[in-house]
Amino acid sequence: MKQALENLVAQALAKLQDSGELRPDLAVEIQIERTRDRRHGDFACNIALVLARQAGKKPRELAERITAALPAAPAIARVEVAGPGFINFHLAPEAYHQVARDILEAGEAYGRSTLGHGRRVQVEFVSANPTGPLHVGHGRGAAYGAAVANLLVAVGYQVHREYYVNDAGRQMDILAVSLWLRYLQRCGEQLPFPANGYQGQYVIDIATALYELHGERLRRPAHEVASGLPSDEPDGGDKERHIDALIERTRTLLGEADYRLVFDFGLQAILDDIREDLEEFGVVYEEWYSERSLVERGLVRRAIERLKQGGYLYERDGAWWFRSTQFGDEKDRVVIRDNGQATYFAHDIAYHMDKMERGFERVIDIWGADHHGYVPRIKAALAALGDDPQRLDVLLVQFASLWRGGQKIPMSTRAGQFVTLRELRREVGNDAARFFYVMRKCEQHMDFDLDLAKSQTSDNPVYYIQYAHARICSVMRQLAEKGLTWNQEQGLAHLRQLVEPHEQELLMTLSRYPEVIESAALAHEPHQLAHYLRELAHAFHTYYNAHPFIVEHAALRDARLALVLATRQVLANGLRILGVSAPETM
RNA sequence: GCGCCCGUAGCUCAGUUGGAUAGAGCGUUGGCCUCCGGAGCCAAAGGUCAGAGGUUCGAAUCCUCUCGGGCGCGCCA
């Protein structure tokens, strides 16, 4: 429709140029937009405002001239000039009837497009350290990333969802040590637990499983573990030095093979838990990408070598630095520590180098907003490697705070006091969690109201939308109970029966769906879809209250049911993209 | 101190490639079920778009400054 109107305006402009009323060299993109206010018609064009200066005419006068030159079209009921010089198009009721037909014929495919031309896009999201269960902050990244990926699929991209597993590095060593200490305690050894260790109950549970599998084979006497270590924080020492020494001691006492065994046992247990958690949440990946494999395959070494070859590295204080300031970063960054170990950043450079080499045309990283300072250095690294940093989009997701009974729930990872994603899902359900997480713009701080998410009333937008879907299913059940059936062919043949304002409104809303999908996908903003679905549900509920569908008059009945079933289809399509179910009964 | 994000109705938030009288939900107030699910609908009240300048036909939207909030500034990951 937009395209058709654009053509009409183009024809009108050409006509005015031919007759000499307008200069032939005017070159402006014609924009047709949905009106915000129903009284301004269905579509509006601001061309007269844009061209007024160039044309040397007043906007309203120019708009009148363009309007007069517009060719007639059956889809347009009337055209008028309004406000400062907008050209408003009021469509004929028939113009929208086609929408219902399109939807019923396309079914699940309605709203999809080929905009992406099958181009390959990678979306990396969540990627939480496998040192503990996912918490509610990760949940938002999961729901958001999954929705963005689904949207990109809907507009024709080939999407590769990936989870970067941080299975190397000090945090994992700390987990391994925490696990072993809990195991030793399980064996009956009396040992203090380090301040910097992972305190959670889940570590104790994994330690029990380790004990059940290996018995006391990995047991070492407490005095051998603890003797001669620098003191821990509660004893006036430095907790970082203490835990580092403890890691070394663990390695020595267990030997490399058994250390690796404990390490991997913890890693696998937590990774399995995360994977299961996400699957239950409806979030699945094409690939789980191991950080350790980057090192083992020599990618880190190669990335460093490339930077060195390019002259982007220099040595200072025994460490190797990347000249990221050359690409706009605030300061240069260490890639090889003075102890010879590569930094996390070096691994990440290799990872992003690999993403580019795998041939993704666009790479999307979804990070917690607290990592925003990290963006310039990663882009700098890509530039130094000779890749185009523009191919990488980093989307930052703000944290969500939970509210219950009007009170903010305090959370701190440090104190081991955080609500897990699993707890949240159990409390409010997957559907409410998925929807609430994507209801807000991702860079917006979000207050997640648990009471609202749980409430089964119209206050709750998830139920409101799902209810619209269930209600339509219920209508169809009623129809069957009355011994009637819906005749699709008859319904589509009699769409012109749909003349009520409520029907026009609903059809108009339905026709916007493909535009919403496209816009939400390109902007990476699933909240646009969430808001749209609420509007659509509202248009339906209003219609439902105003007019009965199961009427005597068969042609009208079939037409109304066609409209209602088209609505159900769009509700289902949209909810699916957001990862929310479309139930037949509530 | 420097950098990034944010500030819109009592509350939670939409609206920013510059468009018409700034919207929605909740909450508040008042209406609507012999009728397809009232888990719904209709209506009213509610605004200095944090503040001050600037850019122009036009600014919540772009620029500058100020105020207020969040986050980041490791040879951690």
What does this structure look like?
The chain has 21 helices and 15 strands. It is of the alpha/beta class and 586 residues long. Among the domains are: 90 residues, 2-Layer Sandwich (Gyrase A, domain 2), CATH 3.30.1360; 111 residues, no CATH class; 118 residues, Orthogonal Bundle (Isoleucyl-tRNA Synthetase, Domain 1), CATH 1.10.730.10. It binds one RNA strand of 77 nucleotides through helix 2, helix 6, strand 9, strand 10 and helix 12.
Comma- or semicolon-separated keywords:
alpha/beta, 12% strand, globular, Gyrase A, domain 2, single chain, RNA-binding, Isoleucyl-tRNA Synthetase, Domain 1, five-stranded parallel beta sheet, 586 residues, four-stranded antiparallel beta sheet, 21 helices
Offer a quick outline of the entry.
It is built from 21 helices and 15 strands. It is α/β, with parallel strands linked by helices.
